[in-house]
Write a structure and sequence with these properties.
The structure is a homodimer of 452-residue chains. The first copy, chain A, is of the alpha+beta class and 452 residues long. Chain A folds into 2 domains: 3-194 and 365-451, 3-Layer(aba) Sandwich (Aminopeptidase); 196-250 and 296-363, 2-Layer Sandwich (Alpha-Beta Plaits), CATH 3.30.70. Chain A is 35% helix and 21% strand. In chain A, strand 1 (55-59) and strand 2 form a beta hairpin. The longest helix of chain A is centred in the N-terminal third of the chain and has 22 residues, at 116-137. At the A-B interface, strand 10, helix 6, helix 9, strand 11 and strand 12 of A face strand 10, helix 6, helix 9, strand 11 and strand 12 of B. Strand 11 of chain A pairs antiparallel with strand 11 of chain B.
């Protein structure tokens, strides 16, 4: 056992106390009644940084403050940014908690409390790892910038402004975010990518009011039927997105990624069971994981128009609409995709209906190559800490903050999660394993060593 | 002026009093509190028949009674059935009436009250015409069977049973229904046809619950998108219905009908204005009136699925559905069409969704040739009464009763309406013109003469 590991082992109790104390603060960013608690949590986090030997300050925003901590040493060649968030989801429904959500308790090896896994336990591991370096060796081998925000659960409204304003002082060689999950309890994983997203709403208007389908049916366009034609035109028979130009910026899956994919212990039957759908289905020529991790989509999230009650109502409805989100992959850009989408919809709808496309913005996809030095260093750190090589995974979802770190600061962002899928984040009795908390601290400590 | 016309002229006041008295009875079939009033109205109508010299009886049903009156004379060669209904729509909203709905008043030449046009003023004209024959000539030149029901506004639930049970005693050479409108105040019209209808609901089910479109999107079928594909498959590019076999029973428009159509003073610009739609639109190769009167349709009355609230919700919805009604033309049959529809939908939906088609029945289309003797006689009667040849019209709507008279009794049904489109039926301040009431009596009197 090396000096870093021994220090963490010796401070087992102290580190758990640090976590418990942090979990006691109800920093619910969505709750106006918790505004002062949320500010208190920011001050508390700054205090942890200072106790560990880092400079920390509270950055006020029009919303909840950001905690920023910096470490630099004249001999260090590299700088890394660590992002986390100290705010938590509301704890409702309260009556489903076995103990109050802000009175953390131990359930075997798990600590149970709101925010345990999302994200207090995870970002705290990085702070304690920095402290471990300083306590054992008097120095961290890389420069660090910590940004721990207080508005992640309420859409990070003020973070982008700060990143833009402070960009020159936030130059770094990469970023690490620990706000996701491992593949399984014994399978560490590094997240190399997220899909982006672009959202839009389509509205078709026909007659000025619902018309009687006897007196008018057949002689005026039916907006619900025309909407169906527009939506059907979004995919071809192979369920490829049929919006012209949609794939122009899409990178094909590199051969080495296909090799890595084959190593992921993905159980397709289990996945199908988890959906309850009659069958899996998607773009021809790709496997399920490829479809989720590497291929863009165009999903109809909702449709509405005309009569939706019991029985029959013989109308030609006045209007119909659909909500659409597209998941994007490198190098698709939400704005370009939304322009293509709008042009296609307007071209497809007939002149007998008025068509409106409301573009609702989006987030960029992000991706790291497995060859990226940050990934290689993190893989080494995880292998040392867990005694097992991590697998490389991606996510079909979108974390806007990660896209912003890339877009505004140009940073490659590694997703190094220590949570588990069953940590009940956003649900009652959220938990985080103390075993993975300690391994997280150790991984972070090794990561800075590997990166130096 | 002949004897029939003079009798009607002499009894002007008496006939209006008869109408006013009938309108005073609040025979609202939908209102359980009006059950006794509705029964009283049936007895009152039977009384009018008897005063005019016809035998009448009340036929009890599990709902509201039917009033049946019969006239026969040994020398008459033909028998005709007259259908009407003495029940009325609820008068709500009451505060929009200028005077109480069951206290009829005169507004110039119009009588205003609930039921004035729909249908009390119209069926009463036929009873008074029968009375006019008996009073002036001691005999009606054709045998008559009157069926005046009390459940038309609540879907005529018990009429079909009666027709089926009494079919042998209801044999006739044709039927007349006066429950529709003229083309315009000075343009009498004979209705030669109605479209039929077939109704169905489509339900598609995919995943067992709404899935996150990041974690699952692209790997499972989206029921809303697949529904759109199914709905889009219902029409081809020319907006012809694309359900295989759908047109197999459809009669093409005969050349003589095209000729008659060209005589209808239809103003397409006015029609478009009345819809408020950006443009007219429909099956390629047909005019607007042809599309409404002679061509079948497949309309989406409503669609629903997934998220329909504000903003964005990134889901693959668990299910989606649509409500469909098809308007039918001769010789389409609702049951056959629904079978074809179901087979097409099930063939079109992919195996990755469960599909359910709920068939909701329908009504048959009806049509008379302009050469039909009933039509020719009615045209002659209208020309004599109005001093103007009627135009031949059709309706894109469906009146189930008419289809039942054809289906159960095999009767050709002529729609001879004396109402106007702006009579505000089903709305406050329903009206009926006394001028057209008198012309209606005269037309009916001449009709029996022409048919003899």
């Amino acid at each position: 056992m090396d000096d870093l590991a021994s220090h963490i082992e010796r401070n087992r109790e102290a580190f758990v106390s640090e976590l418990m104390e942090l979990l006691r603060i109800p920093s619910v960013s969505a709750d106006p009644d918790r505004k002062e608690d949320t500010a208190r949590c920011a001050r508390h986090v700054a205090g942890i940084f200072r106790r560990m030997g880092l400079e920390a300050r509270i950055v006020e925003t029009p919303g909840h403050p950001i905690v920023r901590a910096d470490y630099s040493h004249p001999e260090n060649k590299r700088t890394y940014l660590v992002y986390g968030h100290y705010d938590v989801q509301p704890p409702d429904p309260l009556d489903k908690w076995l103990e109050p959500p802000f009175e953390p308790w131990l359930d075997g090896e798990d600590v149970v409390a709101r925010g345990a896994s999302d994200d207090k336990g995870q970002f705290l591991a990085h702070i304690l790892a920095a402290g471990t370096h300083l306590a054992t060796r008097g120095r961290i081998p890389v420069n660090l910038i910590f940004l721990i925000e207080g508005e992640e659960e309420v859409s990070s409204d003020h973070l982008a402004d700060y990143l833009e304003k402070e960009a020159p002082g936030l130059r770094a060689d990469g970023a690490v975010v620990s706000d996701t999950s491992m593949w399984g309890p014994d399978t560490p994983a590094l997240g190399l990518g997220l899909r982006g997203i672009a959202a839009a709403e389509i509205r078709l208007r026909g007659p000025a009011r619902d018309l009687h389908s006897g007196g008018f049916g057949g002689a005026v366009a039916n907006p619900a039927a025309e909407l169906a034609r527009v939506l059907a035109s979004l995919h071809d028979e192979d369920r490829r997105v049929a919006v012209p130009g949609f794939y122009d910026q899409v990178r094909e899956i590199p051969r080495e990624e296909k090799e890595l994919l084959s190593q992921v212990p993905f159980d397709e039957g289990e996945f199908l069971d988890s959906t309850g759908a009659p069958a899996l289905w998607g773009e021809r020529g790709y496997s399920t994981l490829e479809r989720i991790w590497f291929r863009p989509t165009c999903e109809v999230n909702g449709i509405a128009g005309g009569y939706r009650g019991e029985g029959t109502k013989t109308i030609v409805p006045t209007c119909a609409g659909a909500k659409i989100t597209m998941r994007l992959v490198p190098d698709q850009d939400p704005e370009t995709v939304l322009e293509l989408f709008e042009a296609h919809v307007k071209r497809t709808a007939p002149p007998s209906v008025e068509v409106e496309v409301i573009k609702q913005g989006g987030a960029r996809p992000v991706s790291l190559s497995p060859d990226n030095p940050l990934v290689q260093a993190a893989a080494g750190a995880e292998e040392r800490a867990f005694g097992k090589k991590p697998i490389f995974i991606r996510s079909g979802g979108s974390i806007p903050v990660v896209g912003e770190l890339k877009r505004i600061l140009g940073l490659d962002v590694l997703l190094m999660g220590f949570g588990l899928e069953d940590d009940r984040i956003h649900s009652p009795n959220e938990k985080f394993s103390l075993e993975r908390f300690r391994k997280g601290i150790l991984t972070s400590a090794y990561l800075w060593e590997e990166l130096a």
